[in-house]
Amino acid sequence: MSGKTEPASHLRLSGQTVLIVGGSSGIGLATAQAVLAAGGHVHIAARTSASLAAARAQLGPDVQTHVCDAASEDAVARMSANLPPLDHLFTTAGAFAPDDIRTTAIDELRAIHDSRLWSCVHIVRHCTDRLRHDGSVTFMSGTASWYPEGAALTSAACGAVQSLARSLAVSMAPLRFNALCPGYTRTALWSKTFGDEGETILASLARDIPIGRAAEPSEIADAALFLMTNAYVNGIELIIDGGARLT
């Protein structure tokens, strides 16, 4: 026994600063709450000032907010000019979008990749120079890359994000890059995508996986903190799906 006192696990981000793009709702908001509980400082970015104000009301006045549509490189560049030094960066940008590649308007299909893949590119281009030399970047992807379920372009974008994380873990070392791949998660995205039937659809889908339920955003946030705080995790896709890939 060395007698060395290890820091309390609940303060494992003490004094560190985290930027969460898409931090005003769902998994991003839950991650912001988890970072604060772990002793970190939080900056969140979202597309509208109204959503940021609502999030700040939940998170507290010390949280810094930035209006930014990550699909726009100019918007990300403007945001980056107002960022402090960062320890970790997490982006949840991108939405699930059902599509028929034969009939969906091409602009709608391109927007899926803009919101998922190109948002990550913009953030890397303009925000990683704010990171400490061994900081971390986590891209949120999803299990749609394995289970398309009527969303071909979302599936392709998720796969591209995962490949991007692996590639950047090599080309931008010692920065760490990982992809977080949640499965069915109880967020407002389901009602936004499917309307009043969203909750019913989610429950029906989640009933067939081994755990038998959808994840809570806080459970995915715990995984995001793991990717930030374990300094030897690099270049992986962390799948949090309740065992769905086993069925």
TrEMBL record:
UniProt record similarity statement: Belongs to the short-chain dehydrogenases/reductases (SDR) family.
Record-linked PANTHER family: DIHYDROANTICAPSIN 7-DEHYDROGENASE
Protein name as it appears in the record: 3-oxoacyl-[acyl-carrier protein] reductase
Enzyme Commission numbers on file: 1.1.1.100
Organism in which the protein naturally occurs: Sphingopyxis granuli
Presence of keyword Oxidoreductase: yes
A Gene Ontology molecular function term of the record: 3-oxoacyl-[acyl-carrier-protein] reductase (NADPH) activity
Domain of life: Bacteria
Any Pfam family hit: adh_short_C2
CDD domains linked to this entry: SDR_c
